[in-house]
Design goal:
The complex is a heterodimer of chains A (84) and B (409). Chain A has 84 residues and is mainly alpha-helical. Chain A is built from four helices and no strands. In chain A, α1 crosses α4. Chain A is globular and about 35 Å long. Chain B has 409 residues and is of the alpha/beta class. Chain B has two domains: 8-55 and 297-407, Aspartate Aminotransferase, domain 1 (Alpha-Beta Complex); 61-294, Type I PLP-dependent aspartate aminotransferase-like (Major domain) (Aspartate Aminotransferase, domain 2), CATH 3.40.640.10. Helix content of chain B is 42%, strand content 16%. In chain B, α2 (61-74) runs antiparallel to α11. The chains are: A mainly alpha (84), B alpha/beta (409). Chain A binds chain B through residues 21, 39, 41-44, 46-47, 49-50, 53, 57-59, 61-63, 66, and chain B through 10, 130, 133, 135, 145-146, 151-156, 166, 169-170, 358-359, 362, 364. The structure holds pyridoxal-5'-phosphate.
């Protein structure tokens, strides 16, 4: 069993998977609002989440995603789900 | 101080850009509708190629007659919900007719298709259940999941393998069940679900399959029951929903089930209980249209021919089409501004299609979406093709115009 990823690793992965949804190449910080600052649309957010689910082999249900506003919150949610 | 509307600033920028390019594609006003395929704006006649009027029944004499008779005998409105104010004979009769057509013991009729999915999905899935939803599911399916306490997981569009993987990953659902929600023909790209494979995967995992045939009821299958019938698995579908607003040429919706226990949900579905029931004329028109669907083999075959004609023609012109030939043909455009500009050019040249832009579209795509009707003739399709051909040649001039409009303050 591999050990669960740390927060920085997850943040790097999220940034990587966010790339195609961020064509204007806005800088991504943990505080960045995914929809408000990066202007990723609601459907694209869910597409991004599917990619993260597959990468980490976890289920991130939609109702959880609806509560996530920032990149940092998404990283924290993944951290929690991968350490279960 | 900030305004309540500040949050719409980015949207406002987008709308302003659209309005500079031309008229509001999402707020078209027809001065007259002449028949199933013709409208009028000002003194211009418009060929309607974006109505979802798949069987062309909006002006069918029998359907119109049925609606008129219902107004005369039962009035203009029901003035209340079926739970609080009672059902009319029309509602019951239509439920029986649809149940019979689909070969299912239970069918519930709703006031719109939107409310149908909202009500049925929220009614079926409880706190301990898990909904698995196709990634391209319509807004009303998404909204339905939001009305439930159920956890919702999205799977990759039209991929039974991906559903299988996600069901597996989620593991055993303690004290609950899996409800898998897909559509028959998808509204934006016109692509079709492998329903037979979804039946296998869903039932192998002990789940229930719910299919929204909003765009496919009346259009596919030997008897017009939809994609599930076309693929020979209608009797294995747990829940099948549809709308009256497309092939049935009215307003309203239905959900049918092979489980007769579905009837109990009438007592808990909020968008069924707390809204007025459909008017007698809406229901009567849909009821007459169901008979047309049953005997509509000739309508379906003309629709199929027209779809193939248009698809082949557009492909030959080099247009990027989102799916195989079907009554919905979506032409992918490079971005929203180009799509809006071309949409304007088309309507100015007498052809109405739909402008479809994110987030209402899959893959953040900008589309010129065409929906065909059995009422379209071979000649109508030639008119659409001619317009798309000229559209290509008009690109240079259009680009210049757009640049000038966008630059002008
Ligand atoms: C897939 C799908 N389901 C449901 C609906 C809602 O139907 P209605 O227009 O009858 O509310 C639509 C479209 O409007 C749709 O495209």
């Amino acid at each position: 069993m591999t050990s669960s990823p740390n927060s920085d690793e997850i943040f790097a992965k999220v940034c990587e998977l966010l790339k195609p949804y961020n064509p204007q190449n806005r800088p991504i910080y943990r505080e960045s609002g995914i929809m408000s600052d990066l202007e990723v649309d609601s459907v694209a957010v869910f597409d991004l989440v599917m990619g993260l689910e597959d990468h980490y082999d976890i289920s991130i249900p939609m109702e959880m995603v609806s509560d996530i506003k920032t990149v940092g919150e998404l990283v924290n949610a993944i951290k929690e789900l991968t350490s279960e | 101080m900030s305004s309540l509307f500040d949050k719409y600033a980015p949207l406002k920028t987008r709308v302003d850009m659209m309005m500079k390019i031309g008229q509001d594609a999402l707020g078209v006003q027809f001065d007259d509708i002449l028949d199933a395929t013709r409208g009028r704006i000002g003194n211009r006649e418009i060929l309607l190629a974006g109505t979802n009027n798949y069987l062309g029944l909006t002006f069918d004499e029998d359907c119109m007659e049925a609606a008129k008779r219902a107004v005369e005998s039962h009035g203009t409105g029901t003035t209340g919900s079926r739970v609080a104010n009672g059902s009319y004979a029309e509602h019951i009769d239509l439920e029986k007719a649809l149940a019979d057509h689909l070969g299912m013991p239970s069918c519930i009729v709703f006031t719109t298709g939107y409310q149908t999915n909202l009500a049925a999905i929220a009614g079926l899935a409880g706190d301990k259940d898990v909904i698995f939803m196709d990634a391209d599911a319509h807004a009303c399916i998404i909204d339905g999941t939001r009305l439930t306490g159920a956890s919702t997981i999205r799977f990759r569009h039209n991929s039974p393998e991906d559903l299988d993987k996600r069901l597996q990953r989620r593991g055993e659902i303690e004290g609950g069940n899996a409800l898998v929600v897909i559509e028959g023909m998808y509204s934006m790209f016109g692509d079709i679900a492998p329903v037979d494979e979804f039946v296998d995967v869903t039932h192998r995992h002990g789940g229930y399959l719910y299919i929204d045939e909003a765009h496919s009821y009346g259009v596919f299958g030997p008897n017009g029951c939809g994609i599930a019938e076309e693929q020979g698995v209608l009797d294995k579908i747990d829940f099948i929903s549809g709308t009256f607003s497309k092939s049935l040429a009215s307003v309203g919706g239905f959900c049918a089930s092979r489980h007769k226990e579905f009837e109990i949900t009438r007592k808990i579905m909020r968008p069924y209980m707390f809204t007025a029931s459909a008017t007698p004329s809406n229901i009567a028109a849909a009821r007459a249209a169901v008979e047309k669907v049953k005997t509509g083999g000739h309508l379906r075959s003309n629709l199929k021919e027209r779809a193939e004609q248009l698809h082949t023609g557009l492909k030959e012109m080099g247009y990027d089409l989102c799916a195989e030939a079907s009554p919905v043909i979506a032409v992918r455009r490079p971005n929203e501004a180009v799509a809006a500009m071309e949409w304007n050019w088309l309507i100015e040249n007498g052809v109405y299609v739909n402008l479809a832009v994110p987030p209402g579209t899959p893959q953040s795509s900008s589309l010129l979406r065409i929906s065909l009707s059995a009422a379209h003739t071979e000649e109508n399709i030639n008119t659409i093709l001619k317009a798309f051909g000229e559209l290509k040649n008009a690109q240079g001039e259009m680009m210049q115009n757009m640049a000038a409009k966008l630059a002008a303050e």
